[in-house]
């Protein structure tokens, strides 16, 4: 072993400690960078002579140290756990938000809610029954009845508007999915090329993982890392990204609310752009939550909340018209003519939108039983009692409000539980992957001291060589 070999050993330590310090500095610099995964420099010793030979010597000491790798301290299992939790949370949150918006649209209970307006209408009927000869009471009845019809129509329009907005949101989300998938495919190519050259692409991997997490939130994507460093992204059991190849998604199905509320209702689905007849079997993510909100009614109340609410609004409107018309048509007006229908529907429109008052003239309101006289108001009293009937429109509407409230509360509760699980998964991942500045400070101090030690070794060897070269053989001169 050469006398100068100690210089190489000390130099290797200087280089390795400086490289390790660079890694620690990179960690500290990105301590607050979202998505950054901490890195660690791994040291390995450089052994002495490996193959014995006639003239080789080995005193047992190695030849220094080197950085064998710079590892990215990610945990694939914690990453996968976070993506599953994110997928579930996003799905349930989308549904909870839709229920919350829908519940707010109904405005129950409130002074402007349908329940209040129904009560006002029944009270107006009873007022006319008590004073059938008062024109002011009849005018109030017409206005309160029109207010009920208008309120039901407004509620239906609000539901339809929410559906349209939800579909537009879904289209925008699918566009985000396609954009993220294209970015992942591009990063796959760059990472594979860098890895093949022997370098590291940790920062690119961090960027890619953020995009995969975004896809998990949107469509419940899962990821599988390839040996070359690239990553496959699966959605619904099929590859959205495979290496540098990317598939795209698009929206198919119903484009208007009327198509959803038709019989049978047409659903909205996400399909593969190259296979438009094949729907993507989404099991989680915000897009899946949106699709469940956009779904048609199924007749059991478990369909899409918007279509179900629209169907029940139609049922309430039909119930009001049927029950009031059934009684009003048996009554007679002050001039003795039959009452006929009080409410009517506009052909071609849903019942909730098409409901209106058929009468314009207050004198055409029929409140008397046949043969009971012009001042009889018994039929009006019976109509007014529909408000307290167990099978009346009020009872039906109350059921709608209560059912929606229960479903909204359940959706909100499930979303909170899922979000708590996601938060736990985030903390577990951060505990593994995030930068601990205290730990990095200790590491930097250790690297600094090791660097100083290597420098002292270098100085000592330099002094030894100086003695050997400049002082040997000069004794006695």
TrEMBL record:
Belongs to the flagella basal body rod proteins family. Keywords: Bacterial flagellum, Cell projection, Cilium, Flagellum, Secreted. The gene is flgK. Residues 100-343 form the Flagellar hook-associated protein FlgK helical domain. GO terms for cellular component: bacterial-type flagellum hook; extracellular region. It is found in: Bacterial flagellum; Secreted. Residues 427-470 form the Flagellar basal-body/hook protein C-terminal domain. This is Flagellar hook-associated protein 1. The keyword Cytoplasm does not apply. One of its GO terms (biological process) is bacterial-type flagellum assembly. One of its GO terms (molecular function) is structural molecule activity. It holds the Pfam family FlgK_D1. InterPro entries: Flag_bb_rod_N, Flg_bb/hook_C_dom, FlgK, FlgK_helical. PANTHER family: FLAGELLAR HOOK-ASSOCIATED PROTEIN 1. Residues 9-37 form the Flagellar basal body rod protein N-terminal domain. Transmembrane segments: none annotated. Its main location: other.
């Amino acid at each position: 072993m050469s006398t100068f070999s100690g210089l190489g050993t000390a130099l290797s330590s200087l280089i390795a400690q400086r490289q390790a310090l660079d890694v620690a500095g990179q960690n500290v610099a990105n301590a607050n960078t979202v998505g950054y995964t901490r890195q660690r420099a791994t040291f390995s010793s450089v052994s002495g002579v490996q193959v014995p030979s006639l003239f080789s010597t080995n005193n047992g000491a190695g030849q220094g140290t080197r950085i064998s790798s710079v590892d990215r301290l990610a945990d694939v299992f914690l990453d996968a756990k976070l993506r599953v939790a994110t997928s579930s949370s996003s799905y349930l949150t989308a549904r909870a938000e839709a229920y919350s918006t829908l519940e707010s649209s109904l405005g129950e209970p409130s002074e402007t809610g349908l329940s209040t307006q129904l009560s006002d209408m029944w009270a107006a009927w009873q007022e006319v029954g008590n004073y059938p000869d008062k024109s002011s009471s009849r005018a109030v009845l017409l206005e309160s009845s029109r207010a009920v019809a208008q309120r039901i129509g407004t509620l239906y329009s609000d539901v339809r508007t929410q559906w349209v907005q939800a579909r537009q949101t879904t289209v925008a989300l699918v566009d985000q999915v396609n954009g993220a998938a294209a970015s992942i495919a591009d990063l796959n190519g760059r990472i594979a090329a860098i890895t093949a050259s022997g370098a590291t692409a940790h920062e690119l991997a961090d960027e890619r993982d953020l995009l995969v997490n975004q896809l998990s939130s949107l469509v419940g994507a899962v990821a599988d890392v390839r040996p070359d460093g690239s990553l496959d992204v699966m959605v619904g059991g099929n590859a959205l990204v495979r290496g540098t190849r990317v598939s795209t998604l698009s929206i198919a199905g119903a484009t208007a609310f009327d198509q959803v509320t038709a019989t049978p209702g047409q659903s909205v689905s996400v399909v593969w752009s190259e296979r438009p007849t094949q729907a993507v079997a989404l099991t989680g993510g915000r897009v899946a939550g949106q699709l469940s909100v956009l779904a048609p009614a199924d007749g059991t109340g478990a369909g899409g909340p918007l279509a179900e609410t629209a169907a029940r609004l139609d049922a309430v409107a039909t119930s009001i018209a049927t029950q009031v018309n059934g009684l009003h048509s048996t009554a007679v007006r002050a001039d003795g003519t039959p009452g006929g229908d009080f409410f009517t529907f506009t052909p071609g429109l849903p019942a909730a939108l098409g409901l209106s008052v058929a009468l314009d003239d207050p004198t055409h309101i029929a409140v008397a039983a046949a043969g009971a006289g012009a001042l009889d108001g018994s039929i009006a009293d019976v109509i007014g009692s529909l408000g307290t009937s167990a099978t009346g429109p009020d009872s039906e509407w109350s059921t709608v409000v209560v059912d929606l409230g229960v479903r909204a509360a359940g959706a909100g509760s499930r979303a909170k539980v899922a979000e708590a699980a996601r938060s736990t998964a985030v903390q577990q991942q951060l505990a593994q992957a995030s930068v601990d500045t205290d730990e990095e400070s200790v590491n930097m101090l250790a690297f600094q001291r090791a660097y100083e030690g290597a420098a002292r070794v270098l100085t000592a060897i330099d002094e030894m060589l100086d003695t050997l070269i400049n002082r040997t053989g000069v004794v006695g001169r």
